[in-house]
Specification:
InterPro entries: DIOX_N (IPR026992), IPNS-like_FE2OG_OXY (IPR044861), IPNS-like_sf (IPR027443), Iron_ascorbate_oxido_reductase (IPR050231), Oxoglu/Fe-dep_dioxygenase_dom (IPR005123). Pathway: Alkene biosynthesis; ethylene biosynthesis via 2-oxoglutarate. Keywords: Ethylene biosynthesis, Iron, Metal-binding, Oxidoreductase. By secondary structure, the chain is an alpha+beta fold. It has helices at 9-14, 36-53, 66-80, 84-87, 139-165, 171-175, 258-263, 314-323; strands spanning 22-23, 30-32, 56-60, 99-102, 116-121, 186-192, 208-211, 217-222, 229-232, 241-244, 252-256, 272-275, 287-294, 301-302, 312-313. The strands form 3 sheets. The protein has an 8-stranded mixed sheet with strand order 2-3-11-8-13-6-5-4. The longest helix is centred in the middle third of the chain and has 27 residues, at 139-165. The chain is globular and about 50 Å long. It binds 2-oxoglutaric acid and fe (ii) ion.
């Protein structure tokens, strides 16, 4: 672990909140996206309010069929079931968000690796990183299809933030243009290992240590019954007050990341969250999640409507964030 102070304020904040803290109940706003075009202004107001107050919300009637989400989880699992030496042919190159990693993500908040393996899909950067058709028939096509469904939902939600920030409604769709080689939004498949035969000491670590996301917006697919996500809104970070967000079919959990926080001149909150270990009385089996990170294209310039920060490209911004999160190897 590096001993240097982190370059960005977000990381210094993250480095102080690795403790267990306490659990409090709070309401996570639910926002209904039905009849989107007609209700857009009302939906935008609700999204803005939720993102200012807590930075986390759940959407329903979001347009991605549950059957497609279930199928994406099944396809993701076929990847994790591959033999280790097959997965190891597709390693995540250092400093990128593409390919497979095993217990490599060290959070500044904990200094220990998350107890998980993951496979990241950033479409322009996947050369040599897709499992072959013999190893996993149809995997690439299915995952790219799911990636596109998430992109569409992501830019729909982001169009509401554009409206509230005084930008053109397609501003963030352009900033996340998937046809550009500068595209860097990422679909991540995560497998948190089963704790069924784990030793007591293993329960002292985290499935995912406390962190905020780097991106503009995260669309986090989770499976009902596979809980553990906790959030800690900004004003409660010092006291370490965490709230469980149980997954529910039909609802997708979303959160604001650091990129949109900065882009909105800190009007919106990127909120700390983590995935805790199950308690002895809870489901101890493996846990899967499928976050999609809407990260603006590398060449998109982040310039907030209030001009609070100097402009920076999303590429430069992200490079700083990623380099602080992975073991130096
Ligand atoms: O697995 C989860 O529920 C959360 C994952 C997460 O926060 C992340 O990968 O950034
Ligand atoms: Fe996260």
């Amino acid at each position: 672990m590096t001993t240097e102070p982190y370059a960005l304020a977000e990381l210094n904040k993250e480095a102080t909140i690795g403790g267990i803290g306490k659990t409090v109940e709070r309401e996570i706003p639910v926002i209904d996206l039905s009849d989107f075009d007609r209700r857009k202004h009302e939906i935008a107001d609700a999204l803005w309010q939720a993102s200012r107050d807590i930075g986390f919300f759940q959407v329903c009637n979001h347009g991605i069929p549950q059957a497609d989400i279930d199928a994406a989880f099944e396809t993701a699992w076929t990847f994790f079931e591959l033999p280790t030496d097959t997965k190891a042919r597709y390693p995540m190159p250092k400093g990128t968000n593409a390919g497979w990693e095993y217990k490599a993500q060290v959070r500044p908040s904990t200094g220990t690796p998350d107890n998980k393996e993951s496979y990241q899909i950033t479409p322009p950067n996947m050369t040599g990183l897709w499992p072959s058709e013999e190893e996993l028939p149809g995997f690439k096509a299915k995952m790219l299809e799911f990636e596109r469904q998430n992109w569409e939902l992501g830019v729909r939600i982001l169009s509401c933030f554009a409206l509230k920030m005084g930008f053109a409604e397609d501003f963030f769709a352009k900033a996340h243009d998937p046809n550009s080689d500068q595209y860097q939004s990422t679909l991540r498949l995560i497998h948190y290992m089963s704790m069924e035969n784990a030793k007591p000491d293993d329960f002292k670590t985290w499935r995912a240590g406390a962190h905020s996301d780097f991106d503009c917006l995260t669309i986090l697919h989770q499976k009902e019954g596979e809980g553990g996500l906790q959030v800690c809104p900004g004003k409660d970070a010092a006291e370490g007050k965490w709230t469980d967000v149980p997954p529910r079919n039909g609802y997708i959990t979303c959160n604001i990341g650091d990129m949109l926080m900065r882009w909105s001149d800190d009007q919106l909150q990127s909120t700390l969250h983590r995935v805790r270990m199950p308690r002895a009385d809870e489901y101890l089996g493996r846990r899967l999640s499928l976050p999609f990170f809407c990260q603006a294209n590398r060449d998109a310039v982040m310039r907030g409507p209030l001009g609070k920060y100097p402009p920076i490209t999303a590429g430069d911004y992200l490079t700083m964030r990623i380099s602080a999160n992975f073991a130096k190897n």
